[in-house]
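ERR on first pass: missing label on line 2. Operator R.T. fixed the label and resubmitted. Corrected input:
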Amino acid sequence: MNRVLIVEDEVRISSFIAKGLKAEGFTPTVVADGVIGLDYALTGEFDLVVLDIGLPRLDGFAILERVSVERPEMPIVVLTARDSLTDTVAALEGGAADFMSKPFRFAELLARIRLRLRPLGDVAPEEIVVGDVKLDVRSRRAYVGSKEVELSARELALAEVLLRHQGQVLSREQLLSLVWGYDFDPGSNIVDVYVGYLRKKLGSDVIKTVRGLGYRVE
Ligand code: CA
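pass 2 clean. output:
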């Protein structure tokens, strides 16, 4: 319950939030673009979204609308300028979101985030099965057929992300930020290295390489 997506195009603000959240034990991921922010918010890999309204390509209201239809359980804290507070409150009526007017103190935001993250019961499935491969998410165990396979914590995290998005292409950048965190060097080949480990352990045909795009499980 600690993966927070921050969709905010002002670096000063996003890094302020990310630093504060990290210090509190959260795993923040920062996205500065509305279209990418929506994509990430819909992956299911985050526990909460901190959402700015004025964003390049797609504004926060549009993101809010899509997320509340497709992932109604996702808590959202909207950041808004004080002069547009009325609009924002109207837009939030009936939704799962909360709002925070800029400028704000980190402690206020943190309190809202903590409130929104109170456990409401785990809605994610406990077992993910793709072909012969089975992941028991609760007990953190992996199986191929009936045989248990030893995976490291990072391998398990990567396997979980890939298996949960069966049929969907995930880019190296997405995997990097979902499994390793936003501040990892995007030029790193660590994703490819770990996909190699997983292929050795789970079978060479489970994870397909989609040339120029990333990886897909089918
Ligand atoms: Ca903005």
